[in-house]
User: Fold these one by one.
Assistant:
Number 1:
Amino acid sequence: MRLLVLGGTVFVSRAVAEAALARGLEVTTSSRGVSGTPPEGAVHVIADRDAPLPAELTDPGFDAVVDVSRRPSQVRSALAQIDARHRVFVSSISAYADEATRGGGPGILPLHEPLFDDSDDPEAYGPMKAACERLVAEAASHTIVRPGLIVGPGDRSGRFTYWVDRLRRAGDGEIVLAPGDPADPVQVIDVRDLAEWIVLLAERRTVGVFDAVDQPRPIGGFLDDIAAGVAARPRWRWATDEQLEGIGVEPWMGPRSLPLWLPRPEYDGMMTHLAGPALQAGLAPRPIADTARDTRAWLDATPGAVVTGLTAAEELEALSTLGPPQSR
């Protein structure tokens, strides 16, 4: 099978190329050559997706193409220039306009109004992904995959990585600030499991739309599993949404944030998408402790890897303000 991965050098697209090579596929990757190198064994074609594509991509024809772009112009160009029997487009749950409804998924939640013009506005990400989906849906055979929070080695967002980094630095019994209620749901997918599933969908030419997520689980157990994966034994200091907001801690990611925390109930749906259809279609998530262990190994080997969230000093300040841990 001849697979074209548009990208193939960074995080999701690189993991797809690696998974395809491991399954013995003939893999071509394509990028501008500025963000990294493709995995060994792939044929790499230097190309700018904002310009006409070279003959190595447009002439041969491929059994399947995997595209992760967020820019409608690039997706439109690839559809027009690249011949393929099947296409897998990696979208996002950000394409949904409803972030509050629990148990959402394809056919249940409304999508954003598509934005067919490219934009660098962060608020345009979801509408552009919705537009890309619409364009791909015109292809004769296609799969649309909407991942939730993608985690694991190589992650450049720093959200899951924050917890791995924080816990690998934690002394035995050290108090660690934790967000919300231990029962609040959290839902992620390891990039390698996502990649292996994407390759499977391409091989089978599975037609459909899926949310690429594992089953939601309580964040208390989730953080305990991360701790187990990095051999840490912290004591958690749980803080409510109101307490975190009151001391200026930000949600989700970025400076002065506690990653993975989402205020409730306005974001109740973000971490509770239906996982059943993807699991039935072959998605096979690994234990979170394994993801944490491997992410720690990647962090140890990658100086300068992105870790977002509270600094050590900011967490100490927050813990001092909140006071000692409380039984919950």
Number 2:
Amino acid sequence: MTTSTAQTTTGYEGGIAALYDLIHQGKGKDYAEEAAQLAALVTARNPGARTLLDVACGTGVHLSHLARHFSGVEGVELSEDMLAIARRRNPGTAIHHADMRDFALDGRFDAVICMFSSIGHMAGQTELDAAISRFAAHLNPGGVVVVEPWWFPRTFTPGYVGAAVVEAEGRTISRVSHSRLEGDATRIDVHYLVAQPGRGIEHLTESHLITLFTQEAYEEAFRRAGLDVTFTPGGPSGRGLFTGTAPR
């Protein structure tokens, strides 16, 4: 049996993109239930909503379930490897290769969502404002923006260690992460060991810098984009949800 040397990435690329869903579903993430809850949240604010854009849609699992609740769904994703997986998973669905800070699509939507704390990859208030402004610019009148934030400075736990072991698709996958404070952001380092019979053990690592915006910083970005904003604690990952509504 052989063990490979570590391959490191700073984004959701290569082999790590392929592991993404296996890990989170193995940890109990219920994409179907989350999609149903998102649909209920959107339609409570915007009854009759029919179209939705998922920004930073990742590998497109949410999209595949949201398509059951909305007549038209599209996605935006920056990682080319995740984009390829999302397109294979959602044939016939328009999924655009674009950056949330400056994307400009032809269509407008009744809802725009950005989940799993992807917004935390914005580096500072200027980028946060730009992203929320782009979300708002793609709304129909009365449309809804739903954003799942990263931790706030007051709720982040420096030194946090997360761990999971998953068996899926003939592989045993372990994931261990360590989070620390780096300036006004979280530096999270993640290590994966992927073992497969007859193929040995592969070691993959990734590192992300995720900004610790305050609740007030998010709310100000929504207001600058012309959205009426509320924050609800809890949400899919316990970090809460911001919901913004455009004027009609």
Number 3:
Amino acid sequence: MKEKIVLITGASSGIGKASALLFIDKGYSVYATAPSTIAMTDLEEKGAKILQLDVTNSENCRQVVNRIYKESKHIDILVNNAGFGLYGAIEDVPLADAREQFEVNLFGLAQLTQMILPKMRANREGRIINISSILGRMTLPMGGWYHASKYALEGISDCLRQEVKSFGIKVILINPGAIESDWANIALSKASKNSKNTNYRAMTIQLENLLLKSKKIQVKAEKVAEVIVKASLSKNPKIRYIVPTHAKLICFLRQLISEKSFDYFKEKLFNFHS
């Protein structure tokens, strides 16, 4: 059996790092990437090959892909994990920042996927695992640009899955809920910068309270990593994995009630107001 090669973006922390460690434990050959390799020395010590990668830089992406093909000849699993949460009222967020959100969360992912697909097609096999969010299936105020990028990722993934199925390639979505990581802190800093001193100040404070409360239900990134590896190993993986349990319950509730009722539920539960 040939050695399985995994490429993971955003592997310097959180879900990306946890996935890299678990893939290594399972005997995979892992290329762990991030814009900076400083926080990945532990992965290198475990056996991962660490590479600097800015997914928004096409030349950087091409260099990384070419190096992997030169060393390993193929990529069996691509885990598109790189991303961040741009928060703040839609009115307040500069469009340049909104474009950056899409460059990282969608277009960077897409260009790396485009570079890897030809060889996967030629080999008639491969897995593309896109890390979305339950916030790619429902919305909260103050996260419009982040939600938009994840909604777009859901659509791209659903189309791509159908396009490449006949070539033996499987496209899988992972929808995490509240996970222990730096994501919430980054999102809060963006919200504060963009809207703490505007007409949306009260809503920004409510968002801060909500994200602080969400820490009580956060689970370790390893829980998501386990699902990613499971999806990689499964002969017939699901189209979408929602994890952990609280995320499944929230998505189930969203399916049960109307959009207007869900808006009312959010208003009461999170006490958002202007």
